[in-house]
Amino acid sequence: MFVCLFAALSWEYIIRTQTEEEQLAIFEKRLHREERHVDEQLRKIVISKDISNIEWKDENVILVAFERGELRYWSSEQVGETDLYNKLKEAGNLVKINNIYYDIRRHSVGDIDFFALIFLKDDYPYTNNYIKNNFNSVFGVNVEDAESVILHIPQVQNEPTVYNREGERLFQVERHVAYENFLPNYFVLILYLVFLYLLFYAYEVVLDRVRFFRVQLIAVFSFFVCLVVLRVLMVQYQIPYTLYHFAIFQADNSEWNLVLPVGDLFLTMFCLTHFLYITLNKLRIKYQEPRLIRYRYLFLLGFVFSAFLYTNFLHFSINSLIENTQVSLNIARFLNIDFSSVVAFITLILGGMGLFVLINGSVRYFYNIFSLREVTIGVVCVLAFCAALCYFFDFSLTPLECLFTLSLYILFILNVYLVKPDAQKSIFMIALVVVSVYVIFLSKSSEVHREITIRARCATEIIGERDSQFEKKLMEIDQVIKNSRELDSLVGLRDEEGITRKILNELTDLSGFYFDCRVFLCTDKDSLLVEPGFTLEDCSSYFRTLIDSTGVRIQNTSFYNIDDFDGVISYVGLFDFNTPAGPDKLYLRFDSKDEGEAIGYSQVLSKEASEDRKVVYPYSYAKYKDGILLTSHGEFNYYKRLEQFGETDFEHVEILTKDHYSHMIIPVGKSGVFVISLGDDVFALYYLNVLYAIFVCVLFSSYGLFFRFEEQEWINFRRETLKRRIKNNIISLISALFIIMTVMSIVVNTDSVERKQSMKVVQISKYISKELEKYDCIDVQVCPQIQDILYKIASMLWVDINIYDQTGTLVATSQPVIFEKGFRGTLLNPIAYRKLVKEKATSFVQEEKIGELDYMAAYVPMMLENGEAYVLNIPYFTKSDELNVDIMLFVIIAINIAMIVMVLAFIFSGIVAERVTKPLQMVNEKLRLMRVGGKNEKIVYNQRDEVGMLVREYNGMVDKLEDSVKKLAKSERETAWREMARQIAHEIKNPLTPMKLNIQFLQRTLQGGNVEEVRQRFKDISSILVEQIDHMASIASAFSDFAKMPVANSEWFNLSELVQGCTTLFENNVDRMICDIEPDILVYGDKDQVNRVIVNLLKNATQSIPEGREGLITVTLTHEEQGGVLAVRDNGAGIPEGIRNHISEPNFTTKSGGMGLGLAMSYKIIESMGGTITFESEEGVGTVFRVSLKSEKI
């Protein structure tokens, strides 16, 4: 355990303290290995000299081939750039092409030049949800924030430098990255998890080996304190660092520090639940201890109140987890579900299982010290008090929610006190369902409350009609305009067109923002045509009134946000210029575009996507002014008039349900109304999560994780019974078949949906191709007007359009910015080039991606009327979300049906297994009750199946056994009488011989005639005869006692006091006696008979010690799980191995005197009380006898 901890800490320390030179050395080593591999591949291609059949499959390396400076082969369109050949020839070893750094490997043969470009790192001008800067994964640079590492061509000597395998300087590195930016090391994480597992295993072993209850309590308390301290240190200091680099362990910006991240909550629930499970499993409670009996109601109070506190903790965990994080626990819906959601779901189910373990364990403790009536009243009273506490104080639970804890207690009390062990599994399953329903019910209520909060916050942001990212851009524009001298000159010349070009083309780069910009140069004499109504107003007055009435200044800039609730985000900038002709005012107005214009490549260009705001729910919203719809967004088709919601005068925020949507209606100002809506289907499948919760519970319990408590009392789910095997086989078979069917149907339907989408994309492509084929020129360089035509078609169909010539070079596009910014190369996709240009295919569709944005790309050939051939490319973004939703909806339905079937399979498999094994259980019960010499009943079973054959064999065996028993009984009786007669004859014959000899001697004495001698002899012989007669009488009494044991007078008595008294009698009969007697051990039985056994054992122990040896007898009495264990150890001669099997037989003895009935009677007494006697002996060393007595009534 500590080896794993030491290894993890050491490994993590090495990683954290690794110097920059060491990290670069590792990077350089891997780079050289990659360069060597690429060079080998290039040499093979150079040898073949065949450009047409090159197959380059390495995605991290791009191969391009030129013949006499003309491009002949490229493995990726990403390197498409103007004058690529000269750039690669003239560049050093490092080149940057379209925002990506490459390591160049060159090979030439004849007129052919090969360039292999090894991908090093992305270097995009900005990042968002789709565009990330990453290193080549081959080099193992596990930096999460790759933007903090900057590569550049070597310029100075003192910066860290990376060399290629030829020893030439490749690039230098500027690092601005801390250890926290490194990705977690999974090997170290595994070591920490192994340590945690071994920690709990060690705790279980300690509790298992400790025999005394007080020591166990110390171990439990100590381990619990250690766990608390460990968790506090982990949370407070974010250790181990590897663990807290995972997203699930990173806390949101919560105002309350008690709210734990998902990962921390999972660890806490796991530790707490596992601690409860092991503790309740291994804790040995002395139920008959007087103090426990005296304070047993405090014992009940402690356990029930602990369950109440645990339920509060579970309730608080669910509420805080959902309300303070963005995780969605609606697993059944799958949308917006990620790894954090799955971990959170398992965490809460784990917490519910902990409550299950706590209540079940406490009820099983109560069973040994309370009656059914006592425990029921006690639990009800304690939980009623807890409900009162919830009413008067601020607990997470409400008084009504205490009924959940009470229902679980009542369920388990009935299960333990009234239900047979074989049927308890059904109650366990009912309890699991209750816990699962409770957890899911709380989760849904918390998530619904969170959704309302998020909806209100989202509405506040939208109502404000502001764009925080664009406002940062306006701050930059403000400084640029104020510092532009050229703009001063243009304003002085009143060159309005020049001013507009200067601002739009040079001073304001709006790429990535969906705003239109208009420029107004106003003097006191200028007028402005204002919509609606097209009225003519004074230019400066109009803008001044607009700014004064609705404008909100953006910090210290000259820009104002226009908050007029018109559905458009608007900003107005006011700049004053002093010109020779007088003061002029320059106004810039930025209005947001409709979201339909922000499709396709615009998602990649968007800087707004880099915001950290994540809207979990698919909201629709609309803005009304004076009851008329201004604008709407989302899937809900909003009404033209507000009155169709039921009323027009909304004074306060209201939530109403209409057309299967929940609408939050918010009044804005005097005449504005904002409506934000969410479909009912978002929470429609929430209660199906109960099935997933039950599945997780069953998964835990299937391996005995929370059900194995004591082998004899708890149902052990790991036991491989026939019923269990039948059930598992049925579940496994049905689950496997349905999983296979589900996967196959998902794959088939996904392919079908994608095929339909592909056909749709091809149809759109062919339609666009037909439209463009009407023109004589579509090359932007030749006919620039085609740009506007492409833009209009793209806007109308919500697609992007790219056109390539027969050499694979881009000639026209509806989104030139995506290529100008280097997000995509200007070459045709090489696979599409081969399909359409070389193989003359009529269409080609494939999945492509830019950064992390996946989309469907369609390629079709296009022939103009003048005979020029081109390739039309349609990157189809518009329906990608719809495609994903269609597929996901089918996946949701399929998986939920599969889950229902698996749960039903689990339920019905138990019924089928029960019906199949019930006859076998009946046979097993009869076989268990079968007794030799007893009355064995036959089984009535009329079915003619395999079980029927077994039953007939059993019935035949009963008849044969009865005959055999009769014969055996008769034989044993005869043998017993013969043995008894022989033993009695032997015991009587022994004293008869000396008696006969003494009488004969007395006769000879009488013949002598000496009266005194006769008298003395008669007196001596008479005493001898009396002694022998008494001995014969004792023999007869002993056999009589053995034949008929007295009726036991059973009662509860203190075994400790009885053993103490017996040892006192024998203290003077042995040189040394050691007593270790645990006090207050109560057993149920006949005290006099047990006294007889103890005396017999002590007597045998004293008699076994040979002469000349210092006698030592050790007597110990301890309390085990179900009673007391007495051990009597001597250092006598021991029992020879050959006679140990006969030690409990009547008339068998190892002493010169005695009849061998003492131990036989002792065995018979103890066995009649339900106990056992065992012994261990070693010749020449001694013997120990152990007597185990149960503390329950027999």
Question: Would you give an account of this structure?
Answer:
Helix 9 packs across helix 11 (402-418). With 1194 residues, the chain is an alpha+beta fold. The strands form eight sheets. It has a five-stranded antiparallel beta sheet with strand order 2-1-5-4-3.
Structure summary:
The chain has six domains: 2-181, no CATH class; 186-284; 468-681, no CATH class; 745-888, Beta-Lactamase; 946-1040, no CATH class; 1046-1190, Histidine kinase-like ATPase, C-terminal domain (Heat Shock Protein 90), CATH 3.30.565.
Query: How are the strands ordered across the major sheet?
Result: 2-1-5-4-3
What is the count of β-strands?
32
Strand count, sense and barrel status of the largest sheet are: 5 strands, antiparallel
Instruction: Please state the CA-atom Rg, rounded to the nearest Å.
Output: 46 Å
> Which term fits the overall shape?
elongated
Transmembrane segments: 183-203, 215-239, 259-278, 298-322, 342-363, 375-397, 403-419, 426-443, 684-709, 730-748, 887-912
EC number: 2.7.13.3
Keywords: ATP-binding, Kinase, Membrane, Nucleotide-binding, Phosphoprotein, Transferase, Transmembrane, Transmembrane helix, Two-component regulatory system
Catalytic activity: ATP + protein L-histidine = ADP + protein N-phospho-L-histidine
